[in-house]
């Protein structure tokens, strides 16, 4: 059964049971039972479950309510010596534990019984599970114990227990499967993992990170099914849940594969600029023609040259996509400005009359405070764009989109004329790379153009808290200090004519905003994927690049990855346990540069230590000629 309001499967009815002294709670197959456990109790909670040895058993425990106990610093060797504990033992001391026995001579398993160690688990993050490949004709016995060391914390836990022979009804997945695109003042956009048909039943839960309806302890309850679901239902009951609208998208789903007779790159969808223009109506003005002319005349000095890659496929050696992958995107609205939130992705699947639910790692994000940053996505002319853009609230959104489309389309035409001089469709002369095609080139150009032509808008920041060069005066071609503080690459666009592209101020007049700069590797991806005729060259990091580009958080001194960021260290936990290579965004919601998904592409393409591709000399000396040709196409 699916809840129409959230899409989350409604679990089996919860039964509240508290045992009489000296008695155990009898569990029925797949029944959800809640009981109370005092944190200073001298004895545990005990359960029995009747089964047979020919059936597997899955036993899950969640903490629904209760205090969070501060964990010991297990990296402090002196502290461990004083506790006379190993790091694992010190960690377990502050957690609720679950013991399981299949022997009727041990019906009250616990820390002082002879229960095998493989049947002992701890509720890290408020959840734990034991799976038994075989049950027992004597039954299964369960003991749940309060923390060994509550560290002067008092209170009571509400324990949710489930035992099932049908499968794991509660499962925590540790693979990142939910991804933040961006936020504006009151909205957020997140996407799921890739999947093919049939679509899984996946849903989103969004809770405040702090304050009312937040987890009392992030570390103690961040994997607790019942605590997260209870808070979400309380918000629904009070009518304060944010509204979540979901749809499918193929954004960021195209695989990168190596050429081969049976392993060809997949065809790209063809955005229809003509159709999208026909479907958009907008008001006209007396200077519309002059505005259109200014939009077409992009300054070739801004970020090398604005060129768009065609996304329509003309290569004859590109096969149709066999298994189309999509993602589910969640547009969350009704959020509060300048507020931290935590989002949880949940999948549900029917298992007989029960529901199996999987909780994926959470994603944190913060809404913006600026009123002139507008979240945009699903744009035909920039299908990979999904972020906030500078926006004048008094301007028609339809008119704004039309203006941006005109800019992108003009540069798309210019680039197509250049790329069409290369025999992409020829098996003899068009195979310029063992891993890239002209489609990859078009896609790389398109992503680069969208990133530099349509700024990513964010809140203004203290310049001391930005790693970007605010005016370029400090760029002398010398080594730049490493971004050891892991600051984002944001340039404050304050005052008139401060935007990198003049038309942003002239046409949109968005006011003051911060621009999150494109990642330098959006430019480098063009170098890596395009044929010689393009003659592309990216600026050097220490000369001019830091005026217009940012770098990954783990980038080396040349602006490329992967380094250890000036001593910030190799430990990926500084990024919240997320990706440790090509980090454009971490699990804490920090975004360092606008990647347009090239971070994923570089992770997929790189198996060894990633190094910057050195541009052949024939590309460098012909780059100026390319810019002149493309400038003539734009301005002519």
UniProtKB/TrEMBL annotation:
Q: What's a GO biological-process term for it?
A: calcium ion import across plasma membrane
- Tell me one Pfam family matched here: Mid1
Q: Where is this region: Disordered?
A: 249-279
Query: Which is one GO molecular function term here?
Result: calcium channel activity
Q: What is this protein called?
A: FZ domain-containing protein
């Amino acid at each position: 059964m699916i809840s129409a309001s959230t899409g989350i499967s409604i679990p089996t009815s919860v039964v509240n049971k508290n045992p009489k002294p000296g008695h155990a709670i009898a569990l029925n197959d797949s029944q959800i039972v809640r009981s109370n456990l005092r944190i200073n109790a001298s004895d545990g909670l005990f359960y029995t479950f009747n089964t047979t040895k020919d059936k597997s058993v899955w036993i899950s425990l969640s903490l629904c309510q209760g205090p969070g106990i501060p964990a010991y610093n297990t990296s402090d060797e002196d502290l461990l010596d004083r506790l006379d504990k190993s790091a694992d033992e010190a960690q377990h001391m502050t957690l609720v534990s679950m013991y399981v026995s299949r022997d009727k001579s041990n019906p009250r398993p616990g820390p002082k019984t002879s229960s095998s160690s493989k049947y002992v688990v701890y509720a890290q993050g408020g959840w734990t599970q034991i799976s038994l490949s075989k049950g027992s004709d004597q039954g299964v016995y369960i003991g749940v114990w309060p923390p060994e060391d509550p560290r002067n914390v008092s209170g009571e836990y509400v324990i949710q227990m489930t035992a099932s022979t049908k499968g794991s009804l509660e499962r925590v997945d540790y693979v990142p499967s939910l991804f933040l695109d961006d936020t504006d003042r009151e909205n957020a956009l997140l996407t799921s993992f890739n999947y093919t048909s049939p679509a899984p039943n996946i849903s989103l839960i969004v809770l405040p990170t702090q304050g009312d309806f937040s987890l009392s302890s992030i570390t103690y309850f961040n994997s607790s099914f019942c605590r997260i679901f209870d808070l979400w239902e309380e918000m629904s009951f009070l009518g304060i849940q944010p509204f979540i609208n979901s749809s499918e998208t193929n954004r960021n789903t195209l695989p990168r594969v190596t050429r081969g007779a049976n392993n060809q790159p997949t065809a790209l969808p063809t955005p229809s600029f003509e159709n999208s223009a026909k479907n958009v109506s907008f008001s006209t003005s007396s200077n519309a023609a002059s505005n259109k002319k200014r939009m077409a005349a992009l300054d070739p000095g801004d970020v090398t040259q604005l060129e768009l890659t065609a996304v329509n496929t003309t290569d004859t050696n590109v096969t149709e996509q066999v298994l189309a992958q999509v993602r589910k995107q969640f547009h969350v609205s009704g959020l509060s400005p300048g507020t931290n939130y935590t989002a949880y992705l949940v999948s549900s699947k029917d298992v007989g009359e029960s529901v199996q639910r999987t909780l994926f790692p959470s994603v944190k994000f913060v809404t913006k405070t600026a009123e002139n940053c507008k979240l945009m996505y699903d744009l035909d002319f920039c299908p990979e764009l999904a972020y906030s853009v500078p926006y004048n609230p008094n301007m028609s959104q339809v008119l704004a989109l039309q203006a941006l489309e005109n800019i992108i389309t003009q540069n798309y035409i210019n680039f197509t004329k250049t790329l069409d001089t290369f025999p992409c469709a020829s098996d003899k002369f068009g195979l310029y790379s063992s891993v890239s095609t002209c489609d990859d080139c078009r896609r790389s150009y398109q992503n680069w153009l969208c990133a530099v032509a349509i700024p990513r808008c964010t809140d203004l920041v203290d310049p001391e808290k930005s790693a970007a060069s605010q005016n370029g005066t400090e760029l002398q071609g010398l080594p730049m200090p490493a971004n050891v503080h892991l600051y984002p690459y944001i340039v404050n666009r304050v005052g008139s004519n401060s935007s990198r592209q003049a038309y942003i101020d002239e046409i949109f007049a968005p006011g003051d905003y911060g621009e999150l700069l494109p990642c330098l590797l959006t430019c480098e991806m063009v170098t890596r994927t395009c044929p010689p005729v393009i003659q592309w060259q990216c600026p050097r990091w220490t000369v001019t690049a830091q005026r217009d580009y940012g770098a990954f958080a783990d980038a080396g001194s040349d602006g490329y990855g992967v380094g250890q960021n000036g001593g910030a260290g190799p430990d990926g936990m500084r990024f919240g346990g997320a990706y440790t290579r090509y980090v454009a965004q971490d699990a804490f919601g920090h975004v360092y540069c606008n990647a347009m998904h090239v971070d994923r592409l570089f992770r997929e393409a790189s198996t060894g230590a990633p190094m910057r591709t050195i541009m052949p000399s024939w590309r460098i000396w012909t780059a100026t000629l390319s810019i002149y040709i493309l400038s003539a196409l734009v301005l002519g």
